Amino acid sequence: MEIKDMPGAWEALLENGSWVIRDKGGRKIAVVEKGKDAKANARLIAMSPYTHEALKGLMALIGDEDLEDNGELSGAAVCDMARAALELATG
């Protein structure tokens, strides 16, 4: 699946050697200069609206509770990471 197919995601386009991230209205959101991880970083930025919605959905599902520890990855740690990311995004 391409980024452009993800609901709410922005576009990451290669323009003159740099990655330009534009919203659905074509407004420039960010520019990622050439570099080793430029494409990956541009894709992460372009996915941020979709990721934000996914995190809000996750938090709506789990509410104030933490997920169980599955022995490999602490469910509570995952919940804390999601909450922290949403807090950063919403200020």
Descriptive report:
- By secondary structure, the protein is of the alpha+beta class.
- The chain contains 2 helices and 3 strands.
- A hairpin with a 2-residue loop joins β1 (11-15) and β2 (18-22).
- α1 (38-62) crosses α2.
- The longest helix has 25 residues, at 38-62.
- It is elongated and about 45 Å long.
- The model has no long low-confidence stretch (mean pLDDT 81).
Q: Spans with pLDDT under 50 lasting ≥5 residues?
A: none
Arithmetic mean pLDDT: 81
The strand count comes to: 3
* SSE string: EEEHH
How far the N terminus sits from the C terminus, by CA atoms, comes to 30 Å
Q: Roughly what fraction of the amino acids lie in strands?
A: 15-25%
Secondary structure tally, helices: 2
Strand order of the largest sheet: 1-2-3
Structural class: alpha+beta
Shape: elongated
Percentage of residues in helical conformation: 40-55%
Multimeric state = single chain
Number of domains: 1
Helix and strand layout, with pairings?
Layout: E1 11-15, E2 18-22, E3 28-32, H1 38-62, H2 75-90
Antiparallel strand pairs: 1-2, 2-3
Helix pairs in contact: 1-2
Please summarize what this structure is.
The protein is an alpha+beta fold.
Keywords summarizing the entry:
91 residues, alpha+beta, three-stranded antiparallel sheet, 3 strands, 16% strand
